[in-house]
Specification:
The structure holds two protein chains of two kinds.
Chain A (H helix, E strand, L loop, with lengths): L27 H49 L7
Chain B lengths: L60 H4 L6 E3 L2 H10 L5 H5 L11 H13 L30 E3 H6 L1 H12 L13 H20 L1
Parallel strand pairs in B: 1-2
Classes of the chains: A mainly alpha, B mainly alpha.
Chain lengths: ~80, ~200
């Protein structure tokens, strides 16, 4: 609320909120690392949601997220790409 | 927003009675535009009105055609928890939503409307911010002036300048870096007025 402008947001290490963009998948080691990071991200997320919303809340949130991923990713294909 | 133009829970769409234009029949002197004689006044749904082919909304095609559509999407792992918070204290009092309803997430409806507008040629085939046209050819051969313009909220937050500039270019606005600043007293007040009810409730928690 006390902001005065829209500056690029800062990312903390391994954020649970920001989606991971796919790395260069041609190297198998990179893909393994990417999958580990992604899995850790989901686990961290689930823990955070359990803490904030309880087991039931976290469960329904996770189910709803999963249910909407396909439509989100479909629309994401069309998103403006900026560097 | 698009969610509210589409019947809930995947129910079949038909045009909203207030928007249907249909002659009342032989012997009438003017077309009825408010639909109360053509459709039932049964609320809220289903309407006893005609559906338009492929139109997933309750808005007639020619009315949709008056608008320039752009789309804002957000990753579900951000939007769903945020939506959930609106249905529990303290925000539930602000929103009036006391039950979290997954069916109101809105992604399915957004995709259906997006696909409809794309297939109708109302948006596209050129896609904003993705270089040259990707060569989509629509079956009706419609030559379009309105690009497909989709913004991902994470891109906006990670690169506000680039994203807003690209958005402006797509929709025909002149980009000005001042669009990303609201540091005058007047602008601060405007922001405060718009968002204050949300902030007070969050701080209470």
């Amino acid at each position: 609320m006390n902001s005065k402008e829209l500056k690029p947001r800062e990312h903390v290490s391994n954020p649970s909120g920001a989606p991971f963009s796919a790395p260069n998948a041609s190297i198998r080691a990179d893909m393994c690392e990417f999958k580990k990071k992604k899995a850790k991200g989901v686990k961290d997320e689930d823990s955070e949601w359990v803490e904030k919303y309880g087991e039931e809340g976290a469960k329904i949130i996770r189910e709803t997220v999963e249910a909407n991923m396909e439509d989100y990713e479909y629309l994401k294909q069309y998103a403006i790409k900026v560097e | 927003m698009i969610y509210y133009l589409v019947p809930p829970d995947g129910n079949p769409p038909s045009i909203a009675p207030s928007l249907q234009r249909k002659k009342r029949g032989v012997g009438t002197s003017k077309a009825s535009v408010n639909g109360t004689t053509n459709g039932t006044t049964k609320a809220p749904y289903p309407y006893d009105t005609d559906a338009e082919p492929n139109n997933p909304t309750v808005i007639p095609r020619d009315v949709l055609g008056k608008f320039h559509f752009t789309f804002l999407i957000r990753h579900p792992r951000s939007s769903i928890p945020s939506f959930y918070r609106c249905t529990i204290p303290p925000l539930d009092e602000v929103t009036g939503f006391y039950d979290f309803m997954p069916s109101e997430a809105g992604y399915a409806e957004l995709r259906r409307v997006f696909d409809y507008l794309l297939s109708e040629g109302q948006v596209g085939p050129k896609i904003a911010g993705q270089g040259e046209s990707n060569g989509h050819v629509l079956s009706n051969g419609f030559s379009q002036e309105v690009e497909v313009c989709v913004i991902d909220a994470d891109d906006l937050l990670d690169n506000p300048t680039g994203t807003v500039e690209a958005y402006c270019k797509s929709v025909g606005l002149d980009y000005d870096a001042k669009m990303l600043k609201w540091d005058t007293e007047e602008e601060q007040q405007q922001a405060k007025d718009a968002f204050e009810k949300w902030v007070c409730k969050i701080r209470v928690s």
